[in-house]
């Protein structure tokens, strides 16, 4: 294992590798066991080389993203875990914004405002990274990534760079083909329109107010847990099932917004997952509606680690 550490250090240097790193330090839920190796590359070439190393050494490889829409199990993750939070450059070229995958999509929307470009207002409250936003075609308040995405640069499972158009990603409601293809998003180009600064700011201020007043931002959470079921609202179904405030261990269905599960008091990932399952079963029993998870669950159970 030491040998593997040295091979990774040769690619990304020592300050960009952590061994036996608790992933609860890197997820919005503050949940998760340790990663064998947490790697934070600073260049596209480093990303490619780490993927090729994992393939050559037949070692498991997992992309963490920025940990916002994610639950890592208590047993952690074996092999190499990659976080792209050091790739954060955002550049504007006329009416286009090019953003690296580790940049926060909130910051991209703020750059759009600064440049008086309209189209990304909906993203001003989405906590994820650019890469994560493409991964799940993130959206809010009637807008989604596929409305503004023009193209992307990704690394494929063989460590090769690909330049893709938005239509190559099969973007639909909270999904894309990025996970199925094993793509690692490195950057995205957003095509926007000229707008009016005051109008753009007014929309963003309104959406920010709605988010801050309705969402339980005072506790760690993964954001919205469930996709919206056709014809319903997940939060309303959960609320009408009498589940608000329901708690398993340190995990709680938020009293502020029933669509959120918060880490109220040192929850374990298993408690969080058990509460998700309890919510799904209760809503199914009461309303015969199946709630599909929006949040990803990765990693190993504690007893198997």
From TrEMBL:
Class of the enzyme per the UniProt entry, highest EC level: oxidoreductase
EC number, as in UniProt: 1.3.1.98
Keyword DNA repair listed: no
GO biological process: cell division; cell wall organization; peptidoglycan biosynthetic process; regulation of cell shape
Cellular compartment(s): Cytoplasm
Top-rank taxon, per record: Bacteria
Catalysed reactions listed for this entry: UDP-N-acetyl-alpha-D-muramate + NADP(+) = UDP-N-acetyl-3-O-(1-carboxyvinyl)-alpha-D-glucosamine + NADPH + H(+)
Gene Ontology terms: cellular component: cytosol
Pathway(s) this gene product operates in, as recorded in its UniProt entry: Cell wall biogenesis; peptidoglycan biosynthesis
A Pfam family assignment: MurB_C
Active site, UniProt feature: 174, 224 (proton donor), 294
Keywords, ordered alphabetically: Cell cycle, Cell division, Cell shape, Cell wall biogenesis/degradation, Cytoplasm, FAD, Flavoprotein, NADP, Oxidoreductase, Peptidoglycan synthesis
Role description: Cell wall formation.
NCBIfam families: murB (TIGR00179), PRK13905.1 (NF010480)
Similarity section: Belongs to the MurB family.
Matching PANTHER family: UDP-N-ACETYLENOLPYRUVOYLGLUCOSAMINE REDUCTASE (PTHR21071:SF4)
Protein name in the entry: UDP-N-acetylenolpyruvoylglucosamine reductase
Organism: Ornithinibacillus halophilus
